[in-house]
Amino acid sequence: MSVWHSFMDMMHWDARRLESEIQHVVFSIYTEEYGIDICNVQGVIRYAKPLKLPHTPPCIDGIINFRGEVIIVLDLRSLFGLSASNHDENTAILVIRHRDKTFGVVVDRVLDVVTIPEAMIHPVMDHGAGGKNIYLKAMGEMDGHVIFLMDLQLLLELQEARQANGERWVS
User: Fold this and answer.
1) pLDDT of the chain, 171 residues: tens digit per residue
2) 15: Cβ–Cβ under 8 A, 6 or more apart, which residues?
3) E strand residue ranges, the chain
4) Does the reported pTM lie above 0.70?
5) 167 to each of 29, 48, 56, 158, 159, how far by Cα in Å?
6) Which candidate, 113, 71, 78, places its Cα nearest to that of 93?
7) Cα separation of 124 and 128, whole Å?
């Protein structure tokens, strides 16, 4: 085998390896870790109390100005049915862009950016419990613990259903 063929084989292998690994921004809510595909994260900002909007569901923390755009900020604890927490110096807002929608989510702490091999990503078991499980698309295993991977598509579909009922919570 020529050196050129070896190089081309390595490049092909490396491209396959890159396609089978996805980087996720990992954050915590309560005691559990969650991840969002890094391609959807537009920024991480220190938590500052958003401007509260009247007549909005409890899962909406309010609105903020992010780089000149007014965006809705969701409280994932409320969305998941968890108790509220006191925000501290670790609390952050992840600004997410999915499809053509931009919104923020309040997280207890941003932990890391990790690369999870596709072989370590598994479907979420549906126990019909609702709550946070409906917003999850998969579970990733990293170093002996589980990272729940968020389903942004479903989050937006639920938003569109709420819009059809007269509610609006993602700009």
Assistant:
1) 444 344 344 444 444 344 567 899 999 998 899 999 999 999 999 999 999 988 888 888 899 999 999 999 988 888 888 888 788 999 999 999 988 889 999 999 999 999 998 889 988 876 555 555 677 889 998 888 899 998 887 777 776 666 566 655 554
2) none
3) 21-29, 32-37, 41-46, 60-66, 69-75, 92-98, 101-107, 109-117, 121-123, 136-142, 145-150
4) yes
5) 25, 24, 8, 11, 8
6) 71
7) 11
